[in-house]
Design a protein that fits this description.
Glycoprotein, Type 4 Pilin; 453 residues; Dna Ligase, domain 1; single chain; Protocatechuate 4,5-dioxygenase, Chain B; 4-stranded antiparallel beta sheet; alpha+beta; elongated; 3 domains
């Protein structure tokens, strides 16, 4: 590639892995040190002109991101007992300003930090290893903000556009540690969920798949006490639509904090069926797009969306459908119809999307601030068929309807945590208000056509 994003990486940032800071203590993180050396070597091979570092340890704003505009950009490790270790590099001001402009076009506030603020250790640690590898590049320093995950990802896409627009060969480094609560006595305390968080992130890094990170349970991230989730989302946004090879080089947690080193070598632009939606994210499904448009139109403007003129022929049929909403991996609403109630499937989806966001009695109505954080799925129901007993059911393949008189309970197939027929039936009975011992109960099964984004 002549210009644009050529490489990306996740870098941990414990100052203790800088020999002048950690001394012999750095030996306890030997895998991370070797991983950082390998990372720096691979970035050198990619020959970037500019490094974009995303740090979680600069001045963090709730609704904005910061881009450092000082010239030059510099910092040292005096805070960690090594004032003689200095990093100093030229600010790529042209690219910094182009990134700010691109963010504004996307409705994201990005503030230029004109006053001189020394580089923090989130930037200094990876830059130290790049310097040792002989890499001399200009720098863009971005401090993450507390924006929604989707907006952080969108900001990353803006970085890609800005780099390509200037034909600048760029490497993007997400600086971040994983859980700070892996063991008792860890710096941020202990949580048994710290290891769960780190496993999930490491799996996503191996696969190069941003979706598990984007949909990470908010409580899991909070319990883990991490600082790498947001920089990672921004980095993956910068890779959106590109083909790349991912590798988790190393992971360890020697001081109760998870350190992962991962690299993403860009091999080319994405095929047209992937462009704009992430390397492993398929183009948004038209069923999901309709559900999203319907709820957003209702919440933002108080009006019911019109059916698009170019509806796929399949959406003109009649069928029952369920629309489900998730926020950070947790259910946020689910409403549907077992049998068709409206003129066509498109109308069914429009109404059920609005109802899932505003009428599910288990949740308060969705607010406009939440819209960017929602994930949608649409399940189109096949015609239910009555079965003689539980032996004809399969919770992975079939949904179930349990009915007695006017009482009826439905459960969709292939739900997380519902892996036995007994559990599936128990939940469906509970929803219907039918006790386990009641006689005269009818069972139906059905298949679904599932659409997700």
């Amino acid at each position: 590639m002549d210009g644009g994003i050529v490489f990306a990486a996740l870098s941990p940032h414990p100052p203790i892995i800088v020999p002048e800071v950690g001394g012999r203590e750095a030996e306890h993180a030997a895998d991370t040190v070797r991983g950082m050396e390998k990372l720096a070597s691979r970035i050198a091979e990619a020959r970037p002109e500019t490094i974009v570092v995303i740090t979680p340890h600069g001045p963090v704003l709730r609704d904005s991101l910061l881009v450092a505009m000082a010239q030059p950009l510099a910092g040292d490790f005096s805070q960690f007992g090594a004032p003689g270790v200095v990093v100093k590099t030229e600010n790529d001001e042209q690219l910094s300003r182009r990134i700010i402009e691109e963010a504004a076009r996307r409705g994201i506030r990005c503030v230029p930090l004109e006053r001189e603020v020394g580089l923090d250790h989130g930037s200094l640690v990876p830059l130290y290893y790049l310097s040792r590898a002989g890499i001399r590049c200009r720098l863009v320093s971005v401090t993450m903000g507390m924006l929604s995950r989707r907006r952080l990802y969108e900001f990353g896409k803006g970085i890609q556009v800005a780099c390509a627009g200037l034909s600048r060969r760029c490497a993007v480094i997400a600086s971040g540690d994983l859980s700070h609560r892996l063991v008792r006595g860890a710096p941020a305390g202990y949580s048994p969920r710290g290891k769960e968080f780190d496993r999930a992130i490491c799996d996503a890094l191996r696969e190069g798949d941003p979706r598990p990170i984007e949909s990470m349970d908010e409580r899991l991230a909070e319990d883990a006490g991490e600082c790498g989730l947001r920089p990672l989302l921004m980095m993956f946004g910068a890779l959106d639509g590109l083909e790349y090879e991912s590798e988790l080089i190393s992971y360890e947690g020697p001081f109760g904090v998870g350190y992962a080193v991962a690299t993403f070598k860009v091999t080319g632009a994405a095929r047209s069926d992937r462009a704009g939606d992430g390397r492993r994210m398929p183009s948004r499904d038209p069923y999901v797009s309709l559900a999203k448009m319907s709820l957003e139109s209702f919440v933002r403007y108080g009006r019911r969306a019109e059916k698009p003129a170019d509806l796929p022929p399949d959406m003109r049929r009649r069928a029952g459908a369920f629309v489900s909403l998730k926020k950070f991996g947790r259910l946020r609403g689910c409403i549907g119809t077992i049998e068709p109630c409206r003129e066509d499937l498109a109308s069914e989806i429009i109404q059920n999307a609005i109802s899932a966001g505003t009428e599910d009695p288990r949740f308060p109505p969705v607010t406009e601030d939440e819209l960017d954080d929602l994930e949608y799925s649409v399940d189109v129901l096949g015609v239910p068929e009555e079965v003689a007993g539980a032996e004809e059911l399969d919770p992975r393949r079939y949904g179930v309807i349990i009915q007695k008189g006017h009482r009826r309970g439905l459960l969709l197939p292939d739900l997380e945590g519902v892996d036995t027929v007994e559990k599936q039936l128990a939940i469906a009975r509970q929803k219907a208000g039918i006790s386990p011992g009641e006689a005269g109960v009818r069972l139906f099964r059905f298949t679904v056509e599932r659409h997700r984004y």
